[in-house]
Target: 3-hydroxyisobutyryl-CoA hydrolase
Amino acid sequence: MSDILFEQRGCVGLVTLNRVKALNALTLDMVHALDTQLDLWRDDDTISCVVLVSASEKAFCAGGDIRKVWEGRANPPLDFFWHEYRLNNAIHHYSKPYISLINGIVMGGGVGISMHGRYVVVSENTTFAMPEVGIGFFPDVGGSYLLPRMKGQSGTYCAMSGARLKQGDCLKFGLATHAINAENFDAILSRLSDGEPVDDVLNELALIPEPTVTDEESLLIDSIFGGATVADILSALRESTHPFAAKALAQIETKSPTSVYIALAEVRRGASLDFEDCMRMEFRIVSRILQDDDFYEGVRATLVDKDGAPNWNPKDFALVNADRVEAHFAPLQDSELTFKSS
Model:
């Protein structure tokens, strides 16, 4: 059985993520297959919209197949990111309605294939995160575009802490266009297949669920994570007496210090860039970060040895070298990311 399935239901092009045992972690073959199918459906007059779902009840898509990248560390596989980022861009610019019905975990690469489409529907089982700084990586797959466009400083908070958000939070912070419970997903697909207008179907079923992040905590996020530097943000978290600040600080202090610096820098830059320039920036970063120690150490500690004790270099946030961080953003001489014409 294929890891990704395609079928036509009425006027809907249906994509089903089917790598269930791996929580639908994306492989290069899955990226290629989705990219190719979207091209075909874009030019097919019998397809009016594309719907993306998961065959798993636990996960929509838990990310990219990072362990595969770790295994290829002797010759870092940049081709995976090259094609993945081009796919993210194609989804962002897709000419037909692209509807993601998200049920379960959506992280990393899963965010990249779902949250750049026109409609993002989250169920009561949704858990969103961009946890890359915890493995010495950075929020990629369009994170540099998506995160700074979240409400207030919530995207900066997510980028630096890897915080997990639930259904109501995703709606509150602007990640989702609609919150609809999973029991209605089959009805959505059926009605769209019959040709009902997307907005009519989704708006009729939409809810406004209670977020887990309170308004008071949101104000705290905006106040603290608007700081100019990582040092400013960490200092403000330490000075706050609010339990939420203590929790956020504890989360960040377990992450790769270098990755946290890169994450803040990319979010700040991404706020003023268009989508394609964000993806070019991310390809510059990934081209350098795959040469760093922290990524391989983070994957080892999280996915390989699973000891949860990465040895970051440096371990101390105060020892992160600003020039080293900045070097991740420098233009690539001969290998800048390019995009296919649509």
